[in-house]
C-alpha cells in the first residue's frame, strides 16, 4: 500500500476503507480520539494508536478512512506551528481532480 | 521560475556537497551527449517517476517529454537500512514508494550527523539522480535533509504540478503572458504547444499579443492596421500618420497617437526606420 491521497474533509468520503494522508489543526485529544480541523474547516475524529505523541498545532495523520468523518491512525507527523492550510487545501483539491494522474 | 530557480538549486547542491554527478552513472550506460536538459532539476512525485517512459535509443528516463537528470522529491522515510558504505531508504510521498541510496563517508562526522537526522518516519527533501537497473528504479541521492517547515510539502506538490504544466502546455498565454515570457528557458520549450497559440515557429510574443483580448477598442483597431498583410510585408512598417489616416472618423488623431505610443511602450509594436514608423510584433 504505497498510495495515500492527500485529502480534506470533503474528499474523505471518496476514500472509505482506503489509506489517506490528512493534515489538520489539533482541536482536542480525549482518550484515543483526536479531533482535527481540516483545511476545509471540517472536523475529523482520528482513532489514534496508543502512546503516540501529538505535540504540535498542525498534524498530518496517515490512516484508513473508517467513515466520512473518522480515520484510524497508522502513523502521524507533527507539522509544526506554522502551516498554510488554505494553500494546502488547494493541493488536496488539485491532486484529487485535475492533476490526479500525477498523484494517485 | 522553473529553469532559473531549478538550476540554481541544483547548482547549490553540487557546490555544497562537492558531489560529482557523473559518478553515479559510471558503468551503467555510456555517457550521453551533454545538452542543456542534462542540467535540469525536476520536482516530481514518485508516481510521475514510476509512470515515466524509457527512451529506447538513449536509455534515458523521460517524463512529460523531457529527459530526467537531477530530481528532487519530498516524502516520508518508511524504511532505513544501513549498509557498509551507504544507507538505503524507502521514501513514500503518498503517491508511491521509491528506494533512495545515500552513499556516506563513514569517517566523516558531518555524514554521521546527517545520517542520525534521517530516521524512520521523518519527512525529507531528497536531491539525486534516477538510476534504472534491471527495471528497478532507485534514486542515488547527493543530498538529503529533514524538512523543518512543512509548507515545503505543499510547495513541492504545487511545484510538481507547475513543472508538469509548464512542460506539457507551455507558458500561459493571455494578459499574463508577457510576464512569463522572460522566465521561459530556451531549452525547456515543449515539443508541442498545447495552448494552440499560433502556427509552429510563431514567436512567443506573438501568442501573447494575439490572445490579448483585454485591450481597449482603439488599441485593437490600431493593431489591426499593423497586422494587415501589406503592413507586415513592408520593411519600414506603417507610419503613425498612415494609422491616423486609416482610422480617421473612428478615432481622433490625438487618441490614435497616444495609443500608438502606448502600444510601442507595451512592446506590441516596435519602431523601424525612425520613431514614427512601426511594425507589429505579432509576426
Q: How many structurally independent domains of chain A?
A: 1
> Which pair of chains has the greatest number of interface residues, and how are they split between the two chains?
A-B, 28 and 24 residues
Strand order of the largest sheet of chain B: 5-6-7-9-8
Q: What's the CATH architecture name of chain A? A: Beta Barrel
CATH fold-type name of chain A:
OB fold (Dihydrolipoamide Acetyltransferase, E2P)
Continuous helix count of chain B:
10
> With helices defined by DSSP (H or I, 4 residues minimum), what is the helix count of chain A?
3
* Share in helix of chain A: 10-25%
Could you state the oligomeric state of the chains shown? heterodimer
Based on Cα principal axes, name the global outline of chain A.
globular
Structural class of chain B comes to alpha+beta
The total strand number of chain A stands at: 6
Global structural class of chain A: alpha/beta
Helix content of chain B: 25-40%
CATH architecture label name of the largest domain in chain B: Beta Barrel
CATH fold-level label of the largest domain in chain B? OB fold (Dihydrolipoamide Acetyltransferase, E2P)
Strand content of chain B: 15-25%
Distance between the terminal alpha carbons of chain B, to the nearest Å? 26 Å
**Strand-residue proportion of chain A:** 35-45%
Radius of gyration of chain B: 26 Å
State the fourth-level CATH superfamily of the largest domain in chain B.
Nucleic acid-binding proteins
Amino acid at each position: 500500500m504505497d498510495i495515500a491521497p492527500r485529502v480534506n474533509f470533503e474528499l474523505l468520503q471518496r476514500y472509505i476503507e482506503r489509506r489517506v494522508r490528512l493534515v489538520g489543526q489539533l482541536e482536542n485529544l480525549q482518550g484515543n480520539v483526536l479531533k482535527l480541523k481540516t483545511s476545509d474547516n471540517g472536523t475529523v475524529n482520528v482513532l489514534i494508536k496508543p502512546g503516540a505523541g501529538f505535540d504540535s498545532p498542525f498534524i498530518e495523520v496517515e490512516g484508513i478512512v473508517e467513515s466520512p468523518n473518522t480515520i484510524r491512525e497508522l502513523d502521524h507527523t507533527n507539522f509544526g506551528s506554522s502551516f498554510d492550510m488554505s494553500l494546502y487545501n488547494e493541493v488536496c483539491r488539485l491532486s484529487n481532480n485535475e492533476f490526479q494522474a500525477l498523484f494517485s | 521560475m522553473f529553469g532559473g530557480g531549478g538550476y540554481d538549486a541544483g547548482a547549490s547542491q553540487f557546490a555544497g556537497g562537492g558531489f560529482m554527478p557523473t559518478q553515479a552513472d559510471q558503468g551503467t550506460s555510456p555517457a550521453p551527449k551533454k545538452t542543456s536538459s542534462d542540467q535540469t532539476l525536476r520536482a516530481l512525485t514518485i508516481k510521475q517517476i514510476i509512470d515515466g517512459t524509457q527512451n529506447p535509443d538513449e536509455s534515458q528516463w523521460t517524463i512529460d517529454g523531457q529527459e530526467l537528470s537531477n530530481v528532487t522529491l519530498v516524502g516520508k522515510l518508511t524504511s532505513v537500512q544501513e549498509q557498509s558504505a551507504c544507507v538505503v531508504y524507502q521514501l513514500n510521498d503518498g503517491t508511491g514508494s521509491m528506494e533512495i541510496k545515500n552513499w556516506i563517508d563513514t569517517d566523516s562526522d558531518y555524514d554521521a550527523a546527517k545520517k542520525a537526522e534521517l530516521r524512520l518516519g521523518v519527512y525529507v527533501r531528497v536531491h539525486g539522480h534516477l538510476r534504472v537497473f534491471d527495471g528497478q528504479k532507485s534514486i542515488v541521492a547527493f543530498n538529503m535533509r529533514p524538512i523543518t517547515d512543512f509548507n515545503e510539502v505543499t510547495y513541492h506538490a504545487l511545484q510538481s504540478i507547475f513543472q508538469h504544466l509548464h512542460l506539457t502546455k507551455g507558458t500561459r498565454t493571455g494578459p499574463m503572458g508577457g510576464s512569463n515570457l522572460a522566465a521561459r528557458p530556451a531549452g525547456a520549450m515543449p515539443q508541442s504547444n498545447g495552448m494552440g497559440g499560433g502556427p509552429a515557429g510563431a514567436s512567443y510574443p506573438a501568442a501573447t499579443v494575439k490572445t490579448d483580448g483585454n485591450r481597449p477598442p482603439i488599441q485593437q483597431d490600431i493593431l489591426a492596421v499593423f497586422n494587415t498583410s501589406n503592413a507586415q510585408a513592408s520593411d519600414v512598417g506603417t507610419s503613425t500618420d498612415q494609422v491616423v489616416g486609416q482610422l480617421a472618423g473612428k478615432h481622433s488623431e490625438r487618441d490614435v497617437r497616444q495609443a500608438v505610443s502606448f502600444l510601442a511602450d507595451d512592446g506590441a509594436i516596435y519602431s523601424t526606420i525612425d520613431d514614427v514608423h512601426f511594425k507589429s510584433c505579432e509576426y
